[in-house]
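Can't attach files on this board, so I'm pasting raw text. These are the components:
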Amino acid sequence: MPSNVDNAYDPSAVEHRWQAKWDRDGTNAFALDELRSAERPFFNLMMFPYPSAEGLHVGNIYAFTGADVYGRFKRLQGYDVFEPIGFDAFGIHSENFALKTGVHPSRLIPGNMANFRRQLRRIGGMFDWTHTVDTTDPDYYRWTQWIFVQFLKNGLAEKKEAPVNWCPSCMTVLANEQVIVGECERCGTAVEQRFIHQWFLRITDYADRLLANLKRIDWSDTTLKAQYNWIGRSVGAQLHFPVAGADDLSVEVFTTRPDTVFGATYVVLAPEHPLVDAVTSDSCREAVEAYRARTQAMDLVARKKIEKDKTGVFTGGYCVNPATGERVPVWIADYVLMGYGTGAIMAVPGHDERDFDFAHAHGLPIIRVIAAPGEDASTPLSIAYEYPTGTLVNSGRYDGVPVDEAKRAIVDELATEGLAESRVTYRLHDWCISRQRYWGPPIPVINCDHCGAVPVPEEDLPVELPHVEDFRPDQSGISPLARVREWYEVPCPSCGRDAARETDVSDVFLDSAWYFLRYPSTDFDDRPFDAGITRRWLPVDMYIGGNEHAVLHLLYSRFVVMALHDMGWLDFEEPYDRFRAHGLIIREGAKMSKSKGNVIIPDPIIERYGADTFRLYLMFLGPFVEGGDYQDQGISGPHGFLHRLWESVVPESGELATGDPDPAVDRKLHRTIHRVTDQIANLRYNTAIAAMMEYLNAVRAGGRTPVRAEVEPLVGMVAPFAPHIAEELWHRLGHAGSVFDGANWPECDLAKCVEQHARIAVQVNGRVRGTVSVPVGAGRDEVVAQARAEPNVARHLEGTEVRRIVHIPDRLLNLVVAQAVAAGK
RNA sequence: GCCGGGGUGGUGAAAUCGGUAUACACAGGGGACUUAAAAUCCCCCGGGAGCAUUCCCAUGCGGGUUCGAGUCCCGCCCCCGGCACCA
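---
Top answer:
Structure tokens for the assembled complex are below.
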């Protein structure tokens, strides 16, 4: 016999009861045989978090809730939804925090993870806690290392000396992606250049495929665009500019505009370019050296700040323009970057804004070689003409040839003389994975004087990260592991002689490039991913995460999967069929930040309103892919909705009535099911919730008491957003199991969605003058007759002649009339 | 500079195969119930005029197409992201 207390909605009690039950019953967990045999597998993935000491922030909760809503929705529709979560706990983030607080990361991380687990349970995520990953667990990073070894064996990993971004504050090398306009992404310190031997993964080998596949994956447009731009394919040619007076030397330039080569009046090398020494004349050497020193000392930030001034110095050397045969001076300038193309350009000041500015600043000749319609060879150039249209002028036998044709013809002709070839260049660089840090998986390589870089044999993996109490990096650029002699001194696996382990660790993005492959296979400790299970569950069906990883994580994981596919380990080459980037949450119109002190602390809100209300409110704020504005008072809306839902299903006085639903309410119900189903599928959660609110309002309108058939389907629809209350109400409706077991998503009966009558807006000359109610599907004449009978419509038709009738069935009638000239005047 | 996304009530936001602009919710006002409070329920709530039927104006600004434009086209302004000397 239920007491009054039992009949009041107590979110905290309900939520704890069901969370405990889910754990006890394994509601969300897959046993190995279930993973092997699931009939309608659906892999619902969300980006695993870095377990910070602060705990889950509202941004995490927003993202996870949005992903969880989708997963629960698919499950209610009868899919076997696998929804794992894990921890991305290696990396600079953890390490810097540990350095700041003085607590070793190996002691810090477990507590953080425990706290995250508690919070993730508390918000009611449908997580399979029997299949989680922790990237710092040797049982996980053993396979991260294994992947590196596969890359090495397949020629996709190589060590090379390269200019790298060095952060003097974090004392480490950064990937290009971690440098934000010349500053360290983490600490904002200006980045310097250093030359170090690094391990690179050859992602540029896959640039074309990574680009081509973008056409056939279902991802957010913004994310696709970001990847497209990041890969940055440009088609052009490599032209050879022989060095005057040195037959064997030639400056290679890359250009997308070979048609402008007749206008190339000088050549510019990046200051770091290897040919600078060779072309520099003795008289210019001092100035060149000074400029190079200045460039090197100048960090990238300073280099960008003076973007207007084009500085540079003449080397004293000359090249031969391959098209004109004339000598052109060779300069060095910092506006030419060593990291792109060949690190050298042919400067065409007439048709490139940067070259134009530089030529002006240094008195170099500017020649027009392209004429737009209405221009000719002598039309003055007040600015560079950069458009890729027009015809050639001042270009010898190519005069009058259109740009497109000239591009091909000139390259073809120069190619026959060995002075050019077509070429495609990418903005994308190979992926440097070496980190001179401590908190990461050691790169599994042993360096031997006789055998070179030897991969650690797979049976010896993992190469465990030794415990080092003082892991502070130092200025030497050598990893802290290089101070642990007893760890790195090992015999060469190949020849047995004394050798040394690689002392760099790998980039955190390698950890996260394959974690989704591991989730369903965590039951196996003898393989990274089981073939059969992987075939069943991957690729990921739906991936939801932040667009801040649009190019980093998402591109690297695509690359890793593509490479593993080519090696025969996987039978698919794209990891995520669908990806959706969620929006960001702001608060009261302002960005949240610790310094402003306006960060939302989730725990007290959950304490007060419950996780269901919090989830519902977050999803109600705005379209999930666009984010929303969290206004503190707004939460009472969704909170009241759940209360009313509870009271409608668990009436304070007596039992929930049975019997047939009211026909009008039933129509509304089926229309609501239709809308909600469609809107959740498209991640338009805010309007789905609004539709449910609207329906509940209709159910309770005028204080009416609903019957069971009117509210039971609503319990199913609200379940993705508010799973705990849904379980409780489902249970109280007399069902034995979880609402999430057994495809309980309500069915929409389309026949019931149809209304009997339509309200039609009646316009006269496009302005609404009244509405009429007609049977659905009523013909034009019938509608017109009714409309004319409407007093206000009739008034506006008075003294006029209807010239035209526009009838949109069941929606609108527009009577177009001639202006009434008779009346008045 | 380039590439995205967006400007709609007091506020968060609905409505984009062109067809009754402002759904849903917050805030605000009024009322019912109640000893009271909470909860619940009902009514009002873009601006202006009017007792009212009703009329005019309004989706960042200016034009255009159309019977009809928040939605399409042209030209601007502003805000938020991302990229940025990429040859």
